[in-house]
Amino acid sequence: MSPKIVMLVSGVLMLIAAGMMAGQGEWLMFGIVVPIWLVVLGAWLYRERTR
Hints:
The chain is 88% helix and 0% strand. It has helices spanning 3-23, 27-50. The chain crosses the membrane at residues 5-22, 28-46.
């Protein structure tokens, strides 16, 4: 699978998971997972642009 498809799928899954976490009031989990995912996304975008 191409990396762009993988990132798109992970993004959609992340949005669903974030919505579920926020809906259940699990803000601690939300506050840990979302920044980590954003860092991973940023690193991936940086690598794509500098390749």
